[in-house]
Design a protein that fits this description.
Layout: H1 3-18, H2 29-36, H3 40-52, E1 56-59, E2 63-66, H4 71-74, H5 77-82, H6 86-107, H7 110-124, H8 129-145, H9 150-165, H10 183-196, H11 200-225
Antiparallel strand pairs: 1-2
Length: 226
């Protein structure tokens, strides 16, 4: 057995033997390495594995604790953003925003539809990527507003704030502005058409298809930049 696996096995055995309640702080790393008889570097790797598995959580300056990170430890939008990554943000968007589009198709008013159309038109006329992103954000929020659900809108705003806090870098196609053939233009129109026609399934499916394209493009651009 390699030393890294040995440290992980020793740590798991220690936790099982101690049967510590959630949020119990473990001894400092120096003390833990002596208790387990492993090097501190090996211990850190084992701790990181169990943290990824949700069995432990760590707070810089406070220590390592048993169990999953409490909600009040995540706290602010910045705290949530620090615990996630762009791929997880996209996965969450794919879970939530199609259902928001479905609800918008059920509850949207004529004023809601006009606002969505105005956002699409402005995004197509954007002179810079920053302008486009602002109008893109406004369109997606207009769709959330069209659900006429305070809770859904609050969930969307939280997700969107985390999305904007997670740094992708300016991964763009090498142009100053979106090209006329940018995929989102037609996809946005299809989403709003489905909402206007009260086609709940189409609204959800079009939103899902749009977000899958966004995810694919972001990942491809990120890989090309690395």
């Amino acid at each position: 057995m390699d030393t890294g696996q040995s440290a992980l096995t020793q740590l798991k055995a220690y936790l099982a033997q101690q049967d510590l309640p959630a949020n119990t702080r473990l001894p400092p790393e120096r003390e833990m390495s002596e208790i387990l008889g492993v090097r501190r570097g090996e211990l850190r790797k084992a701790l990181a594995i169990l943290e990824d598995d949700g069995e432990l959580w760590r707070h810089v300056g406070k220590g390592t604790f048993v169990g999953t990170r409490p909600v009040d430890e995540i706290g602010t939008i910045a705290g949530v953003a620090n615990q996630t990554n762009p791929a997880d943000v996209m996965r969450t968007r794919l879970l939530i925003e199609p259902e928001i589009a479905r609800e918008a198709a059920l509850h949207a008013t004529l004023d809601d539809i006009r606002e969505m159309r105005a956002c699409i038109k402005a995004s197509m006329q954007s002179a810079t990527w920053r302008q486009y992103e602002n109008w893109d954000n406004r369109l997606h929020r207009a769709i959330a507003e069209a659900t006429h659900s305070t809770l859904l809108l609050a969930l969307f705003d939280t997700l969107n704030a985390v999305r904007r806090a997670v740094v992708w870098g300016r991964l763009r196609e090498g142009k100053d502005r979106p090209p006329p053939t940018h995929h989102s233009f037609g996809e946005h129109v299809a989403i709003v058409d489905a909402i206007e026609h009260r086609d709940l399934d189409a609204a959800a499916n079009m939103m899902r298809q749009h977000l899958r394209t966004v995810r694919r493009n972001l990942l491809e651009l990120r890989e090309a930049a690395e």
